[in-house]
């Protein structure tokens, strides 16, 4: 099965499925994270809070939280259902990658090297 997401030209990578495969999360330079139904590509909702391009997103194994990293030098933790930002970490440079560990108890953020 193929799913087409119509998001516009400002889409960045990665795009992540949740563990169950029923939801897709995408990030973009428009400062929004979007949640989509995997079976039809319909947009479920958006997460707002970053003030720079969003470079990365990951979903925890229980599909209750997502994490994002942005050019605004923050990593954010979000509640999937409510869309509420649960926590924000600030760094000296952009956050280029976020990733939960296998059981979702740890979150890794990778920033740009500071010169």
UniProtKB/TrEMBL annotation:
Keywords: Repeat, WD repeat
WD repeats: 47-88
Record flagged with keyword Repeat: yes
Gene3D superfamilies recorded: YVTN repeat-like/Quinoprotein amine dehydrogenase
GO cellular component, one term: eukaryotic translation initiation factor 3 complex, eIF3m
Listed GO biological process terms: cytoplasmic translational initiation
Record has Repeat as a keyword: yes
Highest rank taxon of the organism: Eukaryota
GO molecular function, a single term: translation initiation factor activity
Xref: PANTHER family: EUKARYOTIC TRANSLATION INITIATION FACTOR 3 SUBUNIT I
Family: Belongs to the WD repeat STRAP family.
Designated name of the protein: Serine-threonine kinase receptor-associated protein
């Amino acid at each position: 099965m193929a799913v087409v997401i119509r998001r516009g030209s400002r889409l960045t990578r990665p795009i992540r499925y949740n563990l169950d495969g029923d939801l897709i999360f995408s990030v973009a330079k428009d400062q929004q994270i979007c949640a989509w139904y995997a079976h039809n590509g319909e947009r479920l909702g958006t997460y707002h809070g970053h003030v720079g391009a969003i470079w990365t997103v990951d979903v925890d194994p229980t599909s209750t939280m997502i994490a994002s990293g942005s050019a605004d030098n923050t990593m954010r933790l979000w509640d999937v259902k409510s869309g509420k930002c649960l926590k924000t970490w600030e760094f000296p440079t952009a956050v280029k990658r976020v990733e939960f560990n296998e059981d979702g108890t740890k979150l890794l953020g990778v920033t740009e090297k500071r010169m």
